[in-house]
Amino acid sequence: MKEKIVVKNLSKIFGRHPVKALEALAKGKSKAEILNELKHVVGVQDVSFTVYEREIFVLMGLSGSGKSTLERLLNRLHEPTGGEIIIDGTDITKLSKKELREFRQKNFCGMVFQNFAILPHRTVLENVEFGLELQGVDKNERREKARKVIEQVGLSGNEDSYPAELSGGMQQRVGLARGLSVDAGIMLMDEAFSALDPLIRRQMQDELLELQNRMQKTIVFVTHDLDEAFRLGDRIAIMKDGRIEQVGTAEEIISKPASDYVRAFVEDMNRAAILTAGSIMEPVRERAFPGDGPRTILRKIRKNSLTGVLMTDTGRNLKGYIRAKELVEYINKHKDQEKIPFDQNLLHQPATVNKDLPLNEVINTYNEMAFGPIAVVDENNRLEGVIVKGAIIAALAEEGENNADVKPGEIVEK
Question: What secondary structure does DSSP assign to 133-185, as a single string?
């Protein structure tokens, strides 16, 4: 993955003597001590992380955690007190105001805010083309680009409407379209959907994911909503007191919290909705191959204390599942034969899932299957791993009693 934004030891302190406060931080003073003793506010302290090209990177935290301050530092709406912000190889902390303005126009789509921040005296079309206007783009060209983006965000027919004539969700689409009209790689979104009612908010999240699938921007998204963070983020940074406590995927944060704070933060999340088949699958201990005879297959099963075995070819292409009980019965029936041929009727079609399937759907698959483990396969039906009942129960073991969709006891034994 290509690095798009690299942040190194970034700090922001608000006050008349920020460098003095920064030195106090370096000597071990806490955020609270600096506020009490020096009357300075620590917004961000010694933060380092990387955002990769075309990912949605979510900054998540409670009010006052520093998430919005950190996002504003990324395009120098706030001037950093210390550290580096490297975007496409350029440290923007070293740019002059003129260089920074040119860099922003080329690399940033602008910001989409919670309060929409659209111009009330301009129509939808005029709002969407505003960023292009600032860049000096010819009127006909910018109107053509704006109309295309308006169509992409589902606002066709509203080009001549004013913001006051639109619903909250439509106004937020205008803000989104204005950012997308500027053909730059990075979009910053600060609590963009927080002011919307839950239904419209969910729709806007869906639309953002669909737009991202088509447009492939690098998006830094700020939210205080954990569900929203886990739904949108390719990776999530959880912040506390101006620091980043953990960066990871939703799965990594849920399954391996880096601190007690993160553990407490995510304890009410439904693990079954976040974890995936890939996170609980186990390596395949043994496989049968099409050239194996029944006795060879039975030796493999007994050697590994299995109740059955999956058959693949040498390229790991899944062929089926063989039950030990049926195989023993078949061998006993033909025990007088020196060489027993393999009967294709012994080969059953196992339940299969891909590794990105959420755990709650894996549980449904397990309860619906007739026998054996669940085979985890890729898009070409190549075997990647297996899921057994014990792995599902272990994954749910840390689930809170009140928020688990399925309790271990509800998983039917096969």
Answer: HHTT--HHHHHHHHHHHHHHTT-TT-TT--GGGS-HHHHHHHHHHHHHHS--S
CB 81 within 8 A of CB 13: yes
Three-state secondary structure call for residue 76: coil
Which structure tokens are listed for 238?
């959880």
Tens digit of each residue's pLDDT (9 = 90 or more) over 338-388: 889 999 999 999 999 998 888 888 888 877 765 778 999 999 999 999 998
- Torsion-angle region of 353 (φ positive above 0: left; ψ -120 to 50: alpha; else: beta): beta
Structural domains counted in the chain: 1
Is 179 contained in some domain? Answer: no
Residue 396 lies in domain = 278-410
Looking at per-residue confidence, does 94 or 112 come out higher?
94
Query: Can you give the pTM of this predicted structure?
Result: 0.71
Q: Are 58 and 237 in contact (CB under 8 A)?
A: yes
357 assigned to some structural domain = yes
**Tens of pLDDT along 265-299?**
887 777 776 788 888 899 998 999 999 999 999 99
In a domain, 401, yes or no: yes
- Cβ contact 223:194 at 8 Å: yes
169: left (phi > 0), else alpha (psi -120 to 50), else beta?
Answer: alpha
* Tokens 């003073």, residue located: 29
Are 172 and 204 a contacting pair, CB within 8 Å? yes
The answer to whether the beta carbons of residues 154 and 199 sit under 8 Å apart is: no
3-state secondary structure of 59: strand
CA dihedral (184, 187, 192, 198) in degrees, to 10, reads 90
The dihedral formed by the CA atoms of 132, 136, 142 and 143, expressed in degrees to the nearest 10:
100
- Please check whether residue 403 is in contact with residue 373, taking contact to mean a CB–CB distance below 8 angstroms: no
Query: Could you tell me if residue 369 is inside a domain?
Result: yes
Phi/psi for 315 (5° steps) reads: -90, 10
CA 271 to chain centre: 15
Distance from C-alpha of 372 to C-alpha of 157, rounded to nearest angstrom: 55
- Determine the pLDDT at residue 413: 33
